Amino acid sequence: MRQPNLFSLSRKEGWRRFVDAPPRRRPEPLTRARIAALSAEAAEDYNDSRDDWHANFGVVQTPQLAAVHAELEQIVASNRQDGDRIRSAAVIDALPGLGKTTTANLYGRDFDRKQMRRLGPVTEAGHERIPVFRVGLTSNTTLRTLNRMICEFYGHPATNRANAATLASHALDCVLSCETQLGIIDDVHFIDLDRRDGLAVSNHLKWLANELPVTFVYVGVGLAERRFFADGLTGKNVVLAQTARRWTRLEVASFRLDTDQGRRHWRSLIKATERQLVLADHQPGMLVDLAAYLFERTTGHIGSYFTLLMRGCYRAIRTGTEALTRDLLDGIRLDEASEQARKQLTAALAHGHLTVKM
Known about the structure:
Elements: H1 12-20, H2 32-36, H3 40-56, H4 63-78, E1 89-94, H5 100-119, E2 132-136, H6 143-154, H7 164-177, E3 182-186, H8 196-211, E4 215-221, H9 243-246, E5 247-251, H10 260-274, H11 291-298, H12 302-319, H13 326-330, H14 336-350
Parallel strand pairs: 1-4, 1-5, 2-3, 3-4
Helix pairs in contact: 1-5, 3-12, 6-7, 11-12, 11-14
């Protein structure tokens, strides 16, 4: 039985496990007869391996992910300014459940792998090379906690008692010593620009961008609506905001059924994921036949889509159904946003206002 792969991407050790992990091995698809012939212990282990696979079978290269990665590649590749110049930053801004964090992490992983391949694991000065750092903000992030989180990622020993300014200096030392080139800061929507602490953290992000010779990739929900690019300013003061001039906003869209291209992308996603299923009775095309139903259940949000499939595979295995059918999926409850939107989508699909047909 495989042990849980527990780690945190907010520590360099966890990030390295994420970056260096080999592709998972897909369990061998077995027929019902072969599954029935397994001993109780062997069947339990086989089902456990299938649960693990369905929860982690890899990344589907969606058009949204490919588009954002292409933009990030352009931004990072053009940020080769010397240390006295300001680098532009990227911000992935979208609604929940559209894969923002996954998109940023996967780009960071690819970037890290390329840097390690080209430059090696040790710098010329003999320090550990850490091409990427990644932290996630909390609802009560302050200047000190932000600096501490960056230092904790690197494992800096002086993080408990130091003040905000000292921690900022330590963070700069870590970035320079480890020759870090990319910094991912997730959940920036937790910064409340209506609070004094929130404005201080927002301003500190600009200081970090000025002082740390890295390209920053920020990830957040509804940042434009929160006036984040206006630095919380209003009226004539908006022209004084720096964020809108320094950050390139990248959106992640949900899947849509109101265009031929949107319908084609949705069906391609289903085909790609269907090939990964390890269920005894599931045949190619069974999931594609449910394309309209799957959109109705998930409103085109990839996070909800994969949650439905993962829970459906678990239930298909445990109930002996060994296939994803509409009856089985109907018994699975999803996030509340999907459940609430389902009624409207059901009506639109039933009256032909939306369709998955080409």
